[in-house]
Amino acid sequence: DAGVIQSPRHEVTEMGQEVTLRCKPISGHNSLFWYRQTMMRGLELLIYFNNNVPIDDSGMPEDRFSAKMPNASFSTLKIQPSEPRDSAVYFCASSFWWDSASTDTQYFGPGTRLTVL
Amino acid sequence: SQKIEQNSEALNIQEGKTATLTCNYTNYSPAYLQWYRQDPGRGPVFLLLIRENEKEKRKERLKVTFDTTLKQSLFHITASQPADSATYLCALGDRGQNFVFGPGTRLSVLP
Asked: What are the pLDDT digits (tens) for A69-97?
């Protein structure tokens, strides 16, 4: 299996521009997570989907951030407009979760390093 | 609010010694706890899982303990090697999909 695939790996953009990050989860997984990692705040959960449905988006910083999962094999995280404080590494992770007895072992992608100038 | 602490930001030990990392939590009732390893420029990688009704788990040179009374997990790497140098993150999960990562401890094993 190819694992979780993220693109692009690096993104440099200017303040005010729209940024779209992409993720392909592991085939067969039914949960997908978007995280942001910075030195100051560590690994923060932004949003997660279960069976393509957004379950918890309480970690999304503000309305400038949006995420979609149109099908089981693709998700996007969009920032519009971007700001310098959005600079971070964004990770996508996937897992297979079926009920309260299961454990959410997450498989992470390589991340997208975003720099907003 | 939920809080997870890991013993220190950084830990330096000599090769061959046992590294012990600590994960403490408050205001949380985890059903299980996981440890992940993260190398620079990469995503976290799952290492071990221990459930609330388990006291200890082992995998090769790794050992995890879980004390729900103390609200603490210890992660041990025996016979440490320079290749074990990385950041180690603990993560707590409940019976829903409420999953929270700790801040991580950066381990350096010195030759």
From this structure: 999 999 999 999 999 999 999 999 999 98
- B25-51 pLDDT, tens digit each: 999 889 999 999 999 999 999 999 999
CA distance A64 to chain B (A): 23
Question: pLDDT by residue (tens digit) across A23-36?
Answer: 999 999 999 999 99
Residue with tokens 């030195």: A39
How many Å apart are CA B9 and CA B52, to the nearest integer? Answer: 26
Q: Which of residues 9-68 of A touch B (CB under 8 A)?
A: 31, 33, 42-43, 45, 48, 50, 55-56
Q: For an interface test with A, which of B51, B99, B105, B106 has the most A Cβ atoms less than 10 Å from its Cβ?
A: B99
Long-range contacts of B73-79 (CB under 8 A, 24+ apart): B73/B22, B73/B23, B73/B33, B73/B35, B74/B20, B74/B21, B74/B22, B74/B23, B75/B20, B75/B21, B75/B22, B75/B23, B75/B35, B75/B48, B76/B18, B76/B19, B76/B20, B76/B21, B77/B18, B77/B19, B77/B107, B78/B18, B79/B16, B79/B18
What is the SS3 assignment for A86? helix
